[in-house]
Structure formats: C-alpha cells, structure tokens
C-alpha cells in the first residue's frame, strides 16, 4: 500500500503568483559585495529606500573608501548619514562594526564569508551591535553571496501576519523561519529576493499599516484580515 502524500502548503506560491500578475516582475537588483550590503542594511532600517540609496552613494563619494569611513570620527559619520532615521546610534554601531571587522579579519572586507555555511555567516554577522536577523538575511541573500534567506522588514512582517502565516506576536526571526518552511525548495536565492521585493511593494502600496486598500488587494479573498476578518 502506498503511503499517503505529505501535505504541501502552496499558499506562498499562490501569493507570489498573484503579486507578480498585479505588480509585474520587479527590476533586477544591483547586487553589491557583502560589505557594501552590510553597511547599507545597517543604515536602512526604518528609512525609505530612496533615502538609504542616496546616503550609501553619498558615503562612497564623500569618503572614497570604506576604510576612510571606518577611520572617520563618529560626529563625521553621523553628519554624513543625517538623512537616515536614528543617525546617532547608527553612526556608533557602524564605526564599531567596521573597526571590529578589520581587527578580526586583518582587512576591511567580508568576501571571506563566501567560504562559510549560510547559518554560520548569519551568526557571525549578528554578533555586531545594531545587526539583527533582517540585516543578516539581507547580506546573505541580496549580496554576491546569494544564499537562501528571506529578509523580513516591517512591511513583510505586517503582510505575513495579516495573511495568517504567523501570529501577531511573531518577530522577524520566527517569521522568516516559517516562510522558509513554506517556500518551495526549488526557489533560488534570486526567487526569494523577488518574493521579498513583491511583499515589500505590496505593504507599501496596498497592505499599508494604517489604511490598507483591501478593495484593491489581489490576495483579498485568501486573507483572513481582509475577506475573512
């Protein structure tokens, strides 16, 4: 007698398919080296993408190298990143992280991480002050490391909770773990990146924090907070 097939949760695939139909395929990401992605992700928390991109470009132009950024004073760094949210603690954490990377590795580079297992990379990154699961996921998935991970930002967390994939008290780590369980094994790192981008876009444009546009939502009928709420 054949064993009954295991239940396969295809909800994430269905959500992804509908969002692609609604928004179209996101533009291909400009993939950076791990250090640049690390710096960007440390600064971009709770900051609009366009502002974060302007700041990272300004840092490169102003300092010329990440070593010069590392060697700058905290007031100089704080002034350079003034446009992001919480520039004071971010300046402190960023300078400390760049100094510690240099001390631990002998040079200011994260290229050596490509020889590590994904989980080891994330644990290594999360030892720095100001670096959590969101930043470590961004570095391993968005950078040239291109590993399997899902970066869960505030938009992703909100949308995932409303869809009922996790409880309302779930944090980014728990949410990513659940989504990785649901994601098809054949989804590449690039596909997981695309999924993050689509969910983020949906959270920004339709499934907003205070006034979600449920009437325009392409997943309204399968959303407990919408159709079933």
Written description of the protein model:
The chain has helices at 11-23, 34-44, 49-63, 66-71, 74-80, 87-105, 118-125, 133-142, 154-162, 172-182, 189-205. The protein has eleven helices and no strands. Helix content is 55%, strand content 0%. Residues 1-7 have low confidence and may be disordered. The protein is mostly helical and 229 residues long. It has two domains: 11-23 and 152-222, Helix-hairpin-Helix base-excision DNA repair enzymes (C-terminal) (Endonuclease Iii, domain 2), CATH 1.10.1670; 34-142, Endonuclease III, domain 1.
Structure annotation, total helices: 11
Q: Strand share of the residues? A: under 5%
Structural class: mainly alpha
- Measured as a percent range, the helix fraction is 55-70%
CATH topology of the largest domain: Endonuclease III, domain 1
How far apart the termini lie comes to 42 Å
What is the overall silhouette?
Answer: globular
CATH superfamily of the largest domain: Hypothetical protein, domain 2
Low-confidence stretches: 1-7
Name of the level-1 CATH class of the largest domain: Mainly Alpha
User: Could you give a short account of the major beta sheet?
Assistant: none
